[in-house]
Structures are given as structure tokens and as C-alpha cells.
Design goal:
Mean pLDDT: 86
Order of helices and strands: EEEHHEHHEH
Largest sheet: 3 strands, antiparallel
Oligomer: single chain
Low-confidence stretches: 1-16
Strand content: 5-15%
Radius of gyration: 16 Å
Helix content: 25-40%
Distance between the termini: 24 Å
Shape: globular
Number of strands: 5
Length: 176
Amino acid sequence: MLRFTFGEHYYPNKCHMDALYHLRIDSPVGPLLISGTTTHITAVSFTDNPEDVFHEAPPLLLECAQQLFEYFAGDRKSFDLPLSQPGSEFQHRVWDQLLKIPYGQTITYLQLAKRINNVKSIRAVGTTNGKNAIAIIVPCHRVVGANGVLTGYAGGLWRKRWLLDHEGGDLFKGMR
């Protein structure tokens, strides 16, 4: 199970003192930019600049790329990588809950707010979901609006739909 590593004060943490590396890979949802240090993955983002070329990548970024290739091939349903992204305690609680949404299932923003025991935080939960920097691995695409309506996704709704279709899940499974 993936979990975020907390530094002395929730973030920034020690991994942000390390050199930051980037690796661009091609995927069925367009080019992805993997960022991280030698010890943590700090971002997986969609990029519209396929010309980005990076010459050096530590083994961890190569392992992340391999796990993403396996995911896209349908051979991987969960990831096993050390993650780190800056955020408040609240944001980390939300992101930790995203990691608990099973492959092929979706939940609503309200259900996510209930999972962190704060129903009144539904808007903050939505904002935090949108600030997730580690796309696909921290599966913010599995959170949908009421009644299964697809709502905002940093990579575009077409990518969110593609990822959900790829996982082959019932859009309403987990919402019942």
C-alpha cells in the first residue's frame, strides 16, 4: 500500500533537498512527465510538450515508468513506490484516502469528505483532489461528482474517462 512520507512538518521534507530529476514517457493518454528524487516520486503529470528530453534518471524514476507501463498494459492494478508531495495535514489526509480507492471503482467527493470525517469539507476535498501532483498513481481520477458525473480533471475529462474505462470498472461501484 502506498503512503505519503511525512517530513518534520508535513512538507516540505528531506526529499526536497535532493536533486530533482525528470523522465518523460509516452502513454496512451499522451506524454507523461515523471518527477522525483533518488528516494521519492514527487509528480506524475500530463505534458503537452513531447519534445522534453531528459538525459539522466535515477532507478526510482525508471521503476515508476515501468510500473506505469504495466498499468497501461493492464498488468498492474496498484503501485508500490515511495511518494512525496508538499501539502498540509488536511491535504495528506485526502491524498491518503485516494490511495484507498480500489482499482476499477469510483467514489464521490461527498464520500471522500466522509472518509476523512469532515462532511463540511466537500469543497476543500475537491480542491485538494485537483492539487494532487501524482496523477494516476494517486488515483484522483477515481473521484466523480454526484450520480457519477465526471467533473474536473487536471489532465482533461477525456483522460479521466479513458483511465476509468481502462480500469474497466462500473462507474457506480463503490458509490452505492
